[in-house]
Amino acid sequence: FNFRNRLNQEIKRVKTDYFKERILNSAGNTKMFWNTVNEFSGVRKKREHFPINYFIRDLVNTGVGVETVANSFNTFFSKVGSELAKELPVSVSPPLVDDSTHRVVGPEFRLTPVSDSQVEECVKGKRGGLAPGIDNFLVVLLKNKISNLILPLKH
């Protein structure tokens, strides 16, 4: 009994060390990192192709062909997006900023000026911890220094 417990503890330790080492070695390689995470969590790799035989095995004696089944799948899944879109409620809320006085019809493109309070309200409404831009500038930094950044953000 004691030997079994000790063996299980040793196996657990070796397994932990193995996955720690794999994660450390995957630094900078996201594919290797996620392969390690998936291996650790027991996620199986995706099948290479759609298993249509699984769905048609019960249809062998019905005379329905593979092509008919495939076309039925295509028809069904091609309508999923439009059917879901029909179920979404239509929003009739007013726009966040009324810029109707600045709109120009034609080939001209103009940016609508915004106020300091609009910029501040927009930045403070963002969730913290995000770094949405290519510069990885955290939103929390924008929020903390918004008074210094309003002018550059407006121009």
Automatic annotation (TrEMBL):
Domain of life: Eukaryota
Protein name: Reverse transcriptase domain-containing protein
